[in-house]
Amino acid sequence: MSNDERIYRKMLKAIVEHQLPPGERLPEDKLSEAFGVSRTGIRKVLQRLAIERFVVIQPNKGAHVNRPSRQEAEEVLDSRILLEPLLLPEVIDNWTPSLSDHFITMVHDEKQADRDGDLAKSIHLTAKFHYELAKNSNNTVLAEFIEQLCYRSSLVIAAYGTRESVSCDCGDHQALIELINQGDVEQAKHWMTHHLKQIKASISLRGERDGHIDFQKLFSE
């Protein structure tokens, strides 16, 4: 694993687990000191996190952890509730045994991350399940839009969600695979709608957390 990747994963984990709360400033000099790397290296990681919308970089103001508004959070999740079930008929038409095996493996990986208590990995894997499923439809444009919505909802869950947001409490993806294997379009659409509504219901927007972040302590090996 490269040094950049190691720093990226540690920072993403800190954001997802609320050790770096929404709105928290991310000074390059303090992060550079904490990780023992140049500011150029930190800047590359911050830019990657910014592309994924976990971080906002403002000219002359530096970087901070992104803070989705209540409206943005609700609109992102409502968009997924509206759109993702619509692609399931085409997904089912294109379904194959090898795809079923692939998604079953993904579900096993999700459950392992949950058992390991790795919230950052759980958020990443559940988003990947949804956008890869959408890519197996015939609508490339809509699938790409859903992928972006999944990234944005990952940020919402990272900032304001709980472990329930990515656990079986909101529905086990295994159950959806079984419905798809059976070719049951209506039940699959119903399951997806309910699943996404449960995720939305698990979100609880909070205020800012007061306190000083000790980056050296937070990111020490």
UniProtKB/TrEMBL annotation:
PROSITE patterns: HTH_GNTR
UniProt feature coiled coil, ranges: none
UniProt cross-references to Pfam families, sorted A to Z: FCD, GntR
InterPro entries (alphabetical): GntR_C (IPR011711), TF_FadR/GntR_C (IPR008920), Tscrpt_reg_HTH_GntR (IPR000524), WH-like_DNA-bd_sf (IPR036388), WH_DNA-bd_sf (IPR036390)
Top-level taxon: Bacteria
SMART domains referenced in this protein's UniProt entry, alphabetically: FCD (SM00895), HTH_GNTR (SM00345)
Keywords, sorted A to Z: DNA-binding, Transcription, Transcription regulation
Residue ranges of domain HTH gntR-type in the record: 1-68
GO molecular function: DNA binding; DNA-binding transcription factor activity
Entries under PANTHER family matching the protein: HTH-TYPE TRANSCRIPTIONAL REPRESSOR NANR, TRANSCRIPTIONAL REGULATOR, GNTR FAMILY
Protein name, UniProt field: DNA-binding transcriptional regulator, GntR family
